[in-house]
What does this fold into?
Amino acid sequence: MTYESAYAELQQIVADLQSEAISIDALAEKIARAQELIGFCRNKLRETEDATGKLI
It folds into this structure.
């Protein structure tokens, strides 16, 4: 998975959550998936920050 694909999936989840047609079960699943994706994105950003810090 790339940062871009994770971010795109997060954007889709946000759009889905804004829909009033989402069920409670789907809501719980999407929130759990969003938490995973946010963790992934945070780690990618930290890795990139560390790598660029070593170059400077």
The chain has one domain: 3-55. The two ends are 27 Å apart (CA to CA). The mean pLDDT is 93. The chain has two helices and no strands.
